[in-house]
Amino acid sequence: MSHCDLCCFANANPPKTWGAHTTSRVAYMAVYKQCITDQSTIRVSAGYPHYSDGSVHGGIDTVHTNHQSYAPMAGTVETAHTWQGGTTGNDSWGNYIVVKMSDNSYWLAAHFVSQIHSVGETITRGQYIGEQGQTGNASGIHTHWEYWIGGYGTAYRTDPSAILGIPNEVGTWDVEWDATNPPTPPEPPTPPGPSPTIKRKLPIWMMCKPPYRF
Asked: Using an 8 Å Cβ cutoff, are 167 and 173 in contact?
């Protein structure tokens, strides 16, 4: 096959890089604009709506090089669950948040190391939302993302890649930051303050003026 034939073959069979079961006959480099990681690559470890073994998976799992996660879209925290140590029910997501967007759709981010949010909190696009962890029913450190359209809850799941800005396909992808604001770094831990001064009361006999001696 000549060089020209190869070019024609590539143009006639453009690669598909979107969807959980995509295939590509010609590899090419693409950089995806997103704001869930401030790193140059992101790894998708599980896609929607199935794991690689065919079992049901309700979202997209991502692993970030520095394990820091940022908000894909702005909204208000509707749920902020603190992990109780379990692996079933709501605890299966570990420490997680559900954020309601202006169009009344929702996104969920789960398995954080700790819970740093509260209900009613305003989230901006690209805001730091937590350190990736393994809380709940998780086999490794990652963030589990879900996107709900039409109502609150897992019955309204849809492909989260629409708001994440990355392919719904297992693999490692080149990415770049795409938000009007730069990525906000996590808040540093508050240093411990000085030890409180303990005031002790003197015994009454020490407070009295000692008698004179002649």
From this structure: yes
